[in-house]
Each structure stands twice: as C-alpha cells, then as structure tokens.
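JOB MANIFEST
job_type = single_chain_structure
chain_count = 1
residues = 297
[input]
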Amino acid sequence: MPPHVHLASGSWSLPVSLTLAMLLTALLYLRGWLHLRSASGNVIPVWQASSFFLGLFLIWVAVASPIAAFDEQLLTVHMIQHLLLMTFAAPLIWLGAPLMPFLHGLPQQFVRTVVGPLFRWKPMVWLGRALGRPAFCGLAATAALVGWHIPAAFTLALHSEGWHVFEHASFLATGLLFWWPVVQPWPSASTGPRWSMLLYLFLATLPCDLLSGFLVFSERVAYPVYLSTSQQSDLAVFVDQQCAGALMWTCVTLVYLVPAAILTNRLLAPRSSPVSVQSKLRGSAIPQRDPRSLEVV
C-alpha cells in the first residue's frame, strides 16, 4: 500500500454528529412525505423522494465517508467531493421537493408559530426573492468554484479544519442555489423566458471548462501543497492533477447536458402542451395551491 494511502486510511473516523444530523434530516423528510402521501395521494412520487435520499447520501459520501480522508492526499478526491456536493447532490435534493415534506414533518405547532410567521416576514420574503434570482445563483456558484481553487485559498482549506468545513459548506450551499432556478422545486415559479435557462447552463460551464482545462494542460503543479501532504513524487502529483481536471470537465459537461436536453425538447414542443419545462424536469408537478400542502404556513 502506498504511504499516502495508508496514512489517509488510518486517519478516517466516522463523524458521529454529522451522520446523526443527516439521519435526522432523512427521518424528518420521510415523516412529512408519508403524511403527504396518506393525506394527498401521490403529491410527491416515490422517485422524487428517492432522489432526495440519494442526494443526502451523496453529501454524506462526500464529507463523512472514508473518501473524505483522502482529499488531503489526492486532488482527484477533492474534485470528487466538489462534484458530489455541487453537481450531483444539489439537484437531487431539489428534485425531491423537500420544503413541503419538511413542513409536514415538523411539529405543526412549531410550523404555525415559528416557521409560518418567519416565511411571511417581509425581510425574509425579500431575501428569498433576491437569492432566487438566476444571476445571483450563477454568480455565487462561480465565485465558490473559482475562489476555492485559487492556490492560496486551497492551501488554507487543507491546513485548517474550520476553513475546510466552510469550503464544503459553501460548495453545497452554492450548488443548491445554482440548481434552484433550473429544477424549480415547490414553491418556486418561473419568471423569465424558457430559453434563458439554456443560456444559464451554458454560461455556467465556462468557468468549469477554464479551470479543468488549466488543470489538464498546465505544465506545472497547480497546488504544491500536495507535494508535502501526499508524500508522492512530482510526477504522481502532476498526473493526479490532470485526472482531477479531466474528471471535472467530463462530469460537468455530461450532467449539464441532461437539463439542457430536457429544456430544448420542451422549447421545440408545440406551445399548446400543458406540461411546463419545470414539470418535465421534476417529472410530476406539485400543486401550487393545494390547501392541504399550504395549511401549515
């Protein structure tokens, strides 16, 4: 076993608090989903609920599984974490339409006295509208992607546990922001032309292409910190860097093509079609005015 692999495998331990928090989140969603299913029928299909649980599992894999122990040794593992959080887990979470099950899973007294008034509070309404704008969502995701891959910031995150946690949190948070206008889970609604999401997805690939292209074609090691932390040769670190860049290039391109293809198909469909782009992305539209889904707030 290579020294860096042995070192990383021996440093992993199960983060109990984080694992319990994620299990609690899953149970809360399941409780609300079962309540909705018994009261309102197939409001959220099984496949959508499954996508939420899969997204939650991918978050755990990225930050709490044995894979996480290798991100200080291999740039490829760091890239896997970044892709799991921003590119895979985030859209899967939104496809599960989690806000409605959470509202029904929480104690109803708490929802009526705390959550409901908070959601109707004008500053919170304004903040929600501001955060949901596609321009802000795209810029936030780009800033997190580019910012954390600047060598100085990257090195800081590797050397500081606190900054490392913040890095992962920002990847997930901006990933959720990025996919919000694309998936548009309940209770969001489209405000712009349908073709704008194609431009949104295309522009989002540009910083990813630039970063991955730099990692693949660069003639030097971009993150020298791995030369000291991984106990590998210069050549091994350089090859790892190229693998990380190629992985990012491939995954982002393929994943973004899926919603782009769905959106294009809907744009080319007859205008009389009753199914919206967002309904196609979600598979099953969630009622916007269902009193059983809104009575909690």
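[summary]
DSSP finds 15 helices and no strands in the chain.
Residues 273-297 have pLDDT under 50 and may be disordered.
exit_status = 0
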